């Protein structure tokens, strides 16, 4: 009788990984460090331009003077990978929230037994949300060096992109874990 009271491992994994993934993709979506542009010709040597999907900031490394809302003179925000990220990253965050609500309903909380079918469906939704953020993060990474930048400058991956990647992977793993609830559902019927 005790075994039925325990929350299944796959549900615990899903409910730990997915909120962590949500936090990372949310941070990645909002912060302007998808790409860092440095060593820009005719600019101070310590100037770094940070580009996100919504914002462009410049920072002087020596004084830590930071200025956001930089003019997009090269048409960076017009680029398809940036536009796609602007649409898909917030969508992913919303879908993740929805998936977590469904997962919470399925994983028990106030009932004796977990609802395996509901938890499995939540897993599919969370898997989808992970893919929704993985696609723009991957595409942006693929196009990182092709996106407009001052000629001769140095380009590197920013932490916002890394966080978006990690968040996507955690959501996908958490979603996959929750889909294992379907297995229990099939065993019952």
UniProtKB/TrEMBL annotation:
<dbReference type="InterPro" id="IPR006187">
    <property type="entry name" value="Claudin"/>
</dbReference>
<dbReference type="InterPro" id="IPR004031">
    <property type="entry name" value="PMP22/EMP/MP20/Claudin"/>
</dbReference>
<feature type="transmembrane region" description="Helical">
    <location>
        <begin position="12"/>
        <end position="31"/>
    </location>
</feature>
<keyword id="KW-1133">Transmembrane helix</keyword>
<comment type="similarity">
    <text>Belongs to the claudin family.</text>
</comment>
<keyword id="KW-0796">Tight junction</keyword>
<keyword id="KW-1003">Cell membrane</keyword>
<feature type="transmembrane region" description="Helical">
    <location>
        <begin position="117"/>
        <end position="139"/>
    </location>
</feature>
<dbReference type="GO" id="GO:0005886">
    <property type="term" value="C:plasma membrane"/>
</dbReference>
<dbReference type="GO" id="GO:0005198">
    <property type="term" value="F:structural molecule activity"/>
</dbReference>
<dbReference type="Pfam" id="PF00822">
    <property type="entry name" value="PMP22_Claudin"/>
</dbReference>
<keyword id="KW-0965">Cell junction</keyword>
<feature type="transmembrane region" description="Helical">
    <location>
        <begin position="159"/>
        <end position="182"/>
    </location>
</feature>
<keyword id="KW-0472">Membrane</keyword>
<keyword id="KW-0812">Transmembrane</keyword>
<feature type="transmembrane region" description="Helical">
    <location>
        <begin position="84"/>
        <end position="105"/>
    </location>
</feature>
<protein>
    <submittedName>
        <fullName>CLD23 protein</fullName>
    </submittedName>
</protein>
<dbReference type="GO" id="GO:0005923">
    <property type="term" value="C:bicellular tight junction"/>
</dbReference>
